[in-house]
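Here is one chain, start to finish.
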Amino acid sequence: MRQHVNPLSSFFQQALELPDINKLFENDKLPIHLDIGSARGKFLLELASIDTNWNYLGVEIRSPLVISAQKERDKLNLKNLYFLYCNANISLQNWLEKINYGQLKRVTIQFPDPWFKKRHYKRRVLQMPLLLLLAKSLSPGSELFIQSDILSVVQSMINVIDASNCFFSDPSDSNKFLKANPFPVSSERERYVLKIEKPVYRVLYFRNDQIPPEIQE
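Its structure:
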């Protein structure tokens, strides 16, 4: 069961001051993998354990899940991983503007809350302002990976990404999906969906060499 929170409620519209990068990671010079909607953090916990050449940041809007993930991170003593509670659409901008350009190398958005009703589409996590912020922060060739078990949700993300003119996809036709997860570990939701033999729709994007000049300003 998905535990929804309304990201447009006044409580979640308050921008939070996120800690500087040197307070999050032991080596703050490593490239950063940002996972938006990290839930209980199982995906990043495994990934950070096996690949220590990256820093991993999970952001999640549900505070109890962040507390749980951070406790597990502390138990494993992972110095290249941190979880933060925030609304990505509200609080990421100032933090991303503080890190060195090009240090953010990868963004993943996996199985976001679907918000099925049309009047609730504005609550979905991948809105154009957030995508353009990511495009501005990512250097050319950096990765944006999306996946969902709900075709309409991943198609909505594809529509936003394609409309931005900031990314190209692998495969080149974004309506064709990757057959397998490109990472060595899977999220909890992905493992569950595959276990019940349901499809997962995945697209791997790369930041274009050039993006519209108005986004770079």
